[in-house]
Amino acid sequence: MSLEFNSMDPALERAMSEIRDESVDPVVIEAAAARVWQKLAGSAAPLIRGCADFQSLIPDYRAGVLPEARAMLLKDHLHECVACRRVYEGKVVTMPGARTPSRVSHNFRWAAAAVVVATAGLSIWIAIDQFGGRTGRAYVKTIDGTLYEVSASGIRPLLLNQDLPDGVEIRTAKDSHATLQLRDGSVVELRERSDFSTSQTARDLTVHLDRGSIIVQAARRSSGHLFVATADCRVAVTGTVFSVSAGAKGSRVSVIQGEVRFSQDNQEKLLHPGDQAVTGASLEKVSIRDDISWSRNPELLKQLEALRSSLQQVHLPGPRYSSKLLDRLPASTVFYIAIPNLASYLGDVQSAVGKNLEQSPALRAWWAGRNAGVEPLLEKLRAGSEYLGDEIVIAGFSMPRHEMPAMVLFAEVKREGFPEFLKREKLPVVMEQRNGLAAFGPDRETVEAFAPALDSASNGFAGTPFHARIAAAYRDGAGLLACADLSHLSGQQAAPSMAGMRFLVAEQKEVNQQMEARATLTFDGPRTGIAAWLAEPAPMGSLDYVSPDATLVAAFVVRNPSAIVDEVSAVAGRNGSASPAGFDPRQDLAPGLGGEFALSLDGPAFPVPSWKLVTEVYDPARVESGLEKLARAYGWRTAQETVDGRTYYTLAAQNPNPLTEAHYTFADGYLIGGPTRDVVAKALQVKRAGVSITRSSRFVEMAPRDHYANFSALVYNNLGTTLAPIVGLLGAFAPQQRPGQPNPLNGLANVKPWMIAAYGEPDRITVASNGDVMGMSLTNFLSGNVLGMAGNVLPFGQFHGTRAR
């Protein structure tokens, strides 16, 4: 649901109109201005006529004995006058000559002063209204120990609440700690012996950290950026909490909340909460908690941890084992999404947040400053959900003269006032409601065509094969459920290699406080064509050669390698890419191969990727002979050598290049290959030591929970920040994005671990994962983007046909 802002309150509009239209007697203005000026200048003190008079006040201001009114005038002048500010900072400059006072009328001078005072008041009101009471001044917020200002004129202690002009070097003494507020509202916490300064350029504010450690709570900005720069990196942020340390061995950046853009050596990567980056080769990463353990604000850290623990106790609605809406759908239904009602879930989230905020003033301030928009959104979503029943269904059904299925939302209504709620939120939908049911969507014709479902408990869908497949999913417990009848949804003849596809059922639910996602593709009969390549689940000995440090693994078992070779050769032949003369893959290579393959990135990714290829081999001599024929056909170099009694083979392009070399050997019925002989030797060591990835606790914990003991295929990713350097390099060559549109490469800079497993059965293929693989879909639902959610669940582009695609 989209959020919209209402117009200004009528009472406030009337008050502002009266202020604008009110006529004030010039005599009153003059008298008021005179009183203000007398108060500011000091009635008994000499008049201040120019820069020389202001500079004569600087010694008393430094000593802290200048009257408050005159100190205010001096500080204001220092902000505007570069020459006087340089004198104040200890830099010698030539004094400007005295200016001759202009002959301005007495009345005009006081009127101008009054206008200045009124304008300042209005500016303060606008600043408070728009920026939550920020002062717009940089000042010392807290001091524990001693905080210094270092300038050309020397070093002097800073006092609590003292203003901090730009460009001034600030330093904490030993065993000291301080908190500063910057002009944009950001808060900087300084560790002992930390040294930093700030500079302003246009709308950007830069914090220069020369040494030490800081924790920054960056304010949200409507324009410009806050940067933190060290000697070897730069961080760009907004509305974020993070820490930066700078030392002799390099810099370390840790993200506590939000996201930061970390730049080093013209390469940029995006860091998320819990991520950390270091710049020096000799500087190791540490835990985020250890990195910020010096903070004097442990209460906030403690409360943040309590809030996170509370939210972890909030769980999605339990699985549903039946549906009151399913039988009512039209017989032509080809697409079905069922979403659990999240009213209670959102309410529990609000309750958990509220209880933690009540117990911690520090957490309340953090929430108000950085999450002010979350609470209204949660409230609005919860309010809308409370009108509806246990689930919301998005149904797609065929209509005459419509090429694509018509979409409508369908739900039970358990509270009166749902139409008024939709109208109040200004949602552009058409709705039919009766008999305790509601159908709504953006198109009137579609809603009216679906309306019979509101009147009859059966509209022909019950008893169809698609209905039976959905009902089976409910019997196993349904969470977020998406189903499609592919035989009707495509609307055209499927390719022979993928013929027979019938139903796609994708689901995500929480079982035993563990997210579980699964998608099953069912066929009309036994799998044929490409779908038949995947074998039923079987042990994978190829994984015994992959170490626990592998960052990317893809492994699979196939029924018949020769069938794959036939299909690939046929496709290559149709594209004019037949096998070279002297090499027949079906005769020379395929018969010697087993049906098991594993490809991994197991070691450094740069400069030469440490890839491993492990293939089951039944006839090593035949496979080696086939590879020799392949090399001769393409003009590759071949070689072999014996090391410690083992023969290693080499395939390489004619021009020496480590990226175009492959080394391999045969062991225990497998071919083990890699870019270097060292990578192959390490794979053999992993096998002998029995410390493969299948013994890794991380790998085992990420495997989906089900009744299968083995896999037909799996993809395991633990790339982390491995791709960050290449993402930074490619970012410079990426197409220019529209303003506000993120670079699609940025998401690769910090990939989170995941595993997806596949299981082949005679008439279906199931893909499963323990994790939130459909999390983007649920996020789209929470933000009201229902069509975006549906688009992420099912590949609509594949159903449009060649012409539409």
List the helices and strands and how they pair.
Elements: H1 10-21, H2 26-41, H3 51-56, H4 58-63, H5 68-80, H6 82-88, H7 106-131, E1 139-144, E2 147-151, E3 154-157, E4 169-172, E5 177-181, E6 187-190, E7 195-201, E8 204-217, E9 226-229, E10 234-237, E11 241-247, E12 250-257, E13 260-264, E14 267-271, E15 276-278, H8 288-291, H9 298-312, E16 333-340, H10 343-359, H11 361-370, H12 374-385, E17 388-397, E18 406-413, H13 418-424, E19 430-434, E20 437-441, H14 444-450, H15 465-475, E21 480-485, H16 486-489, E22 501-511, E23 514-523, E24 552-557, H17 561-574, H18 585-588, E25 593-601, E26 611-617, H19 620-634, E27 637-643, E28 646-652, E29 661-667, E30 670-674, H20 677-689, H21 697-702, E31 713-717, H22 724-731, E32 754-761, E33 764-769, H23 775-782, H24 786-793, H25 801-804
Parallel strand pairs: 8-9
Antiparallel strand pairs: 1-5, 2-3, 2-4, 4-7, 5-6, 6-8, 7-8, 8-11, 9-10, 10-13, 11-12, 12-15, 13-14, 16-17, 16-21, 17-18, 18-20, 19-20, 21-22, 22-23, 23-33, 24-25, 24-31, 25-26, 26-30, 27-28, 28-29, 29-30, 31-32, 32-33
